Structures are given as structure tokens and as C-alpha cells.
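Worked example

This section walks through a single chain of length 329. The input is the sequence exactly as stored; nothing has been trimmed or padded.
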Amino acid sequence: MAKWIKENKIAAGIIVILIGILGFVYFDKNPSKIGDIGKTSQLAQESTSFGDKVLSFNSLDKVEKFEDLTKWGLVAPEQYNHTAGKNLIMLAIKANAIQKGDWVTAHGLLGTSMLDVDLLDREGYKSLFSSMFTIQGFKMYASSLNTDMGLLVDIDGTVKPTKSIIAQREGIIYAASNELEGRYVYNDAGNFGKNYLPEPTRKSNAKLSKILLNGLKVYNQLRTAGFDDKTLRDALCITYASLDYDNVSVDSTDIYYLGSLQVCKDALKATLTKLNSEKDNNYNFLQELGWEMQSRSLASGDGILIPDDEKNFEAMLKVIEKDLDSIKK
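Given that input, the structure is written out below as C-alpha cells.
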């Protein structure tokens, strides 16, 4: 064969050219065949920088049962991968939710579902990421809508013990929001009955006092760790303003940590004034409060998801990473 090619160079060249032309025509008329080459191996595995082999998300239509999800690096319901869940949560928080709220919420909640933790700790992280769903992301308003958070709070307003300080933080904000709305929208019996005037004998004030004192402990724990949680601080500040409005004294030297109490009193007063003028038509105390807080530069949104201070942000990341490590079963 080699001798023939050597003696018939022109003929051999023509044959090579014809083969090339035929191949071009075939693939030009059947472009899908090009993609088929190696398609099976691409579907079977995609290399990652971590040395693992995982399926491409483009092939998720191949999933037929929950057990298959592990091939894509995911987990089935009631199955857990704590490390992967923690990493997703940290990435979601680092992303900063401004203009990326849907992505942060989706990946944060996905990571939360993968955590191998107790129920109450999981509820805390679910609450953290769920607050992006509401109008303007008002944290206190969002917390009041999250009925699952009732699992974290006893009937007397005490937040149940959890391993996670983030769950404690979320429980305090929920309890404060729920009781504040109850104070101004319902009566002591739990029936609808708005009252925007001072009410010193209101039974719910005992719960608010307990929530405030317990919340100050959680806030100080976070502050000691280097994270100034302005969202929790200002929720507690509004709680104090409401107690002060009802002439209820709070015996704690830590009140001064709450910053400018007068600003919180002004926000509450403006909210009540507006609601009282629209008494027959406006029922959303916490939403109106959110607007008044925002207009006074109080932390109406969640500072964990939308940080405004780089140093505080870095401290917060360390707190959450340590928290996620500590709550693993």
C-alpha cells in the first residue's frame, strides 16, 4: 500500500480530498451528529476543580427518582449533606441580596434544606432567607408572616433554646414583631380591636418586656463576637419604644446599646398617628412601621442579607460560619 501511494501520489491526494469533502457534506446535513460525539461521556460526568465527577444540570430531565439526585450533587427530601448546605448558605450571604434577591433566597433555602440540624435551627435559617419575599423586605413584617416561626416561641414570648444563635435572633425578631402587632391590632383576648392610644395595663406588655430582655442578651452575644446586628438592635429599639409609650419601665442597663431611643419613639409615634387617621381602612401596623423606620435610617430590612458595612459584614460571616459548624448533628 505504501509503495502504491508513493508511486501514485496524485491519485492518493485526490482520494484524501474526496474523503474530506464527503465528511464535510455529511456533518453539514447532520449537525446533530457532531453533538452526539462524546455526548454520553459528557452526560455521564463533568470534571470539577474539586476532583469530583457530577452530572450537568442541563441533564436534570434525566432524573427519574429521588435517589438519582445525588448524581447531580443534590439531596432527596429528608436526606442531608451538611457541608454542601453550609457552603450554599455562605455563598448566598456573600452574594449580597441587592439586585440578586431571588438568587440569594433560592440558594439560601436550598442550602438550608440540606443542613443536618435540629428542626428549630433549620427554621431559624429558613426565616432568614424567607424575609426577602415581602414588600421592601421589611424584616419585622416578614417575620410576622412566617407562621412556622411559632415553633420557636413559647406562649409567654420566650424563645425556646436552640444551638444556633441565628435561630435565636430570628426567634426574637419574630416574637417582637408578633407581639407588637398584637398590641395595636388586637385586644388582650386576641380578638380584633385596634387601639393606638397608651395602654399601661395591657397584658401583652409583660411578653414584650421579656422579649426585649432576652433579645438584648442575644444582641450582646453577637456584638461580643464582633457583629453589630443592626436589624435585631432596631427591632428591640422599637419594642422598647412601645413599652415606653405604654409607660412600662424596663430594668436593664443594656438599653443604651440600642442607640438613639428617641428615633425609635418617633418612628412608632408617626406610625400610630397615621394609622389612627386611617383607622377604618388601614390594618397593617408592621408595614407602616417599616416605612417609618426606613425613612429614619433604622434597619427596616435584614442587614445580614443586605449589609452596609464591610468590617461588620466580615465579622458577620465568621459568626454564621461558626454557627453552621456548631449546629451540625
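What to look for: The first strand starts at residue 46 and ends at 47.
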